[in-house]
Amino acid sequence: MKHMISALAVFCLMLFMAVPSLANEDKTRVFDYADLLTEEEEQALNELCLEKEDALETELYILTTNNTEGKETVDYTDDFGDNHAFGYDREYGNYMILCIDMQNRIVWLSTSGKAEIYFTEARIDALLDDLYADLKAGNYYETCYSYIQSGEKYLSEEPVVNDITTDPDRYKDTIYKYDEESSPYYMTWYFRLAVSAAVGAIVVAVMSYRAKAHMTVNETTYSRNGAQVYEHSDSFIRRTTSSRRIETNHSSGGGGGGGGGHHTSSGGHSHGGGGRSF
Q: pTM of the prediction?
């Protein structure tokens, strides 16, 4: 009888172990590879992320790094989420990652699932605005705390669908890239155009001077029997180049819209996101 009970117990244990867990058993939410936080700060932020995610149905992650492995910050962050198969509801599901890239001095927000839809470009800007002063000052705990608070705020309220916050599927081939205005290497479009125009004018002037220096004939050289050669010239005035984002019509299936920087990662998963230099 004892042998039968033991065998039954072992069988039940094996059956229980064979049933896959639907919940994410890994409770790590802070990956401080750049060592910007103390152990106490890291633990406090980790607990705060876990505390918020059930109500938000979205996992919140914090990632810091000194080495993006040769990738752009956006790709490094997206790949990190893909490689860990993050997601509150399922693998590659609802989650968001704040990455502080100390190597390239870029902060990046990567979104997936619900977060991809709820975080429009305007909301990404607002979140980055909220934490930017602390980030510039090197207050990394306050930066991460602000990220969690803004995440809770915007994930608790569905964005309004209008002409500004639209369905991210309308912009399949766009990505909300870094805001370079805060970077010391930033050059405005007008300045670049002025430099190009100046260089072009110098090249034309030099070519024109050389052409005149080698000219051995003019409009009277071949004038015979009353024939006349008329001089004609074309003047280049200007060229105007404009660019615009090309929209594709995709209907939104159900409520909700928005999404900042909708794109597909190298792993084939959909992400939103945005960031800026600091």
A: 0.61
- Dihedral sign for Cα 223, 224, 228, 229, please: negative
pLDDT tens, N- to C-terminus, the chain (278 residues)? 444 444 444 444 443 343 333 344 689 999 999 999 999 999 999 999 999 999 999 999 999 999 999 999 999 999 999 999 999 989 999 999 999 999 999 999 999 999 999 999 999 999 999 999 999 999 999 999 999 999 999 999 988 765 554 444 443 334 445 554 444 434 444 445 555 666 666 766 666 666 555 555 555 554 455 555 455 554 444 333 333 332 323 222 233 334 467 788 888 888 999 999 99
Distance CA 234, CA 172 (A): 43
**71 burial class (0-12, 13-18, 19+ CB within 10 angstroms)?**
middle
Whole-number Å distance between alpha carbons of 132 and 138: 10
